[in-house]
């Protein structure tokens, strides 16, 4: 954790930027859900996630930072085509994004992390394990492809 | 003595943290750029920049592309660069060091850690 003194001003700047990054995450998920895999959409969300991770770490929000790190890993695997985009996958990712937003808002209000993301992080860990076990070469789709997407949001 | 530091990062939060951190350096001017391209403009506008704090992951022109451009400009080659990296992009940090950066710190970093590295690099320079 950084030893910078976290002032209300820093919290406000962090929150404003985090909201923009989380909005970008929502847009990327919606675009992928509606249009299918688009490498540009995946590449476009990596920068905001990376910045959100770095900023969260600098603010001492370790749980948020760790969750975003896992999310980056998932998007890397999506970009590699290792995961077929499906309803169960999007259910997990949208739920995670909602929890992440909640954790960020609460952390800024309380000047510290109060909303744990451990459960959501475990979901991403399980997903990444599943991808690794099913696709050691990193090329074939995971079992999530067994549930094809039928009803875009 | 440090007179001008150019900080390159796409986050307003990090720029504000630099502003607070660099207040310990008396009479030192902080120049901010949000990406590599903007940083090149600042270098052209401002004379006597003593140090560059460089993020890698940025839109428009990232830190590695910026370093590449810096290497080609003889007027800027002597300016020490410190990479401010983020967990998960270690290979980019290594590339940056091979491209001439003098050191790096990884976010989240301690203010004292960055201060120590600045002292070390500017003393050696």
Order of helices and strands of chain A: HHHHH
What is the helix fraction of residues of chain A, given as a range?
Answer: 55-70%
Determine the mean pLDDT of chain A.
88
- Globally, the shape of chain B reads globular
Task: Compute the number of strand runs of chain B.
Answer: 5
Find the structural class of chain A using helix and strand composition. mainly alpha
What's the name of the CATH homologous superfamily of chain A?
Answer: HPT domain
Summarize the structure in words.
The complex is a heterodimer of chains A (153) and B (125). Chain A has 153 residues and is mostly helical. Helices cover 70% and strands 0% of the residues of chain A. Chain A has five helices and no strands. The model of chain A is unreliable at 140-153 (pLDDT under 50). By secondary structure, chain B is α/β, with parallel strands linked by helices. Chain B has five helices and five strands. Chain B has helices spanning 12-22, 36-45, 63-72, 90-98, 111-124; strands at residues 4-8, 29-33, 51-55, 81-86, 103-107. Chain B has a five-stranded parallel β-sheet with strand order 2-1-3-4-5, with helices on both faces. In chain B, strand 3 (51-55), helix 3 and strand 4 form a beta-alpha-beta unit. In chain B, helix 2 (36-45) packs parallel to helix 3. The longest helix of chain B has 14 residues, at 111-124. Chain B is globular. Chain B starts with a strand and ends with a helix.
Question: Characteristics of this structure?
Answer:
heterodimer; A: 153 residues; mainly alpha; 5 helices; B: 125 residues; alpha/beta; globular
What's a quick, concise take on this entry?
In chain A, 70% of the residues lie in helices and 0% in strands. Chain A is mostly helical.
Per-chain topology:
The complex is a heterodimer of chains A (153) and B (125).
Chain A: H1 8-35, H2 39-58, H3 62-79, H4 87-110, H5 118-134
Helix pairs in contact in A: 1-2, 1-4, 2-3, 3-5, 4-5
Chain B: E1 4-8, H1 12-22, E2 29-33, H2 36-45, E3 51-55, H3 63-72, E4 81-86, H4 90-98, E5 103-107, H5 111-124
Helix pairs in contact in B: 2-3
């Amino acid at each position: 954790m950084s030893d910078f003194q976290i002032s209300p001003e820093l919290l406000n700047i962090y929150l404003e930027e985090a909201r923009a990054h989380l909005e970008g995450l929502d847009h990327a998920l919606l675009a992928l859900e509606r249009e299918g895999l688009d490498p540009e959409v995946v590449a476009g969300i990596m920068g905001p996630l990376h910045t959100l991770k770095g900023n969260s770490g600098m603010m001492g929000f370790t749980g948020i930072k760790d969750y975003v790190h896992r999310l980056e890993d998932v998007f890397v695997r999506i970009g590699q085509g290792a995961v077929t985009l499906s309803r169960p996958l999007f259910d997990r990712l949208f739920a995670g994004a909602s929890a992440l937003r909640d954790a960020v808002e609460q952390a800024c209000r309380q000047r510290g992390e109060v909303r744990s993301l451990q459960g959501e992080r475990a979901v991403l860990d399980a997903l990444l394990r599943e991808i690794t076990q099913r696709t050691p070469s990193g090329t074939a789709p995971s079992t999530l492809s067994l549930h094809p997407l039928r009803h875009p949001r | 003595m440090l007179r001008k530091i150019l900080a390159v990062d796409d986050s307003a939060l990090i720029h504000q943290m630099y502003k607070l951190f660099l207040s310990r350096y008396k009479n030192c001017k902080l120049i901010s750029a949000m990406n590599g391209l903007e940083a090149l403009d600042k270098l052209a506008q401002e004379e006597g920049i003593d140090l560059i704090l460089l993020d890698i992951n940025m839109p428009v022109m990232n830190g590695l592309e910026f370093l590449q451009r810096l290497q080609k400009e003889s007027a800027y080659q002597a300016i020490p660069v410190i990479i401010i990296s983020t967990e998960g992009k270690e290979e980019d940090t290594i590339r940056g060091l091979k491209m001439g950066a003098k050191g790096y710190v990884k976010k989240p970093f301690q203010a004292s850690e960055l201060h120590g590295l600045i002292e070390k690099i500017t003393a050696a320079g």
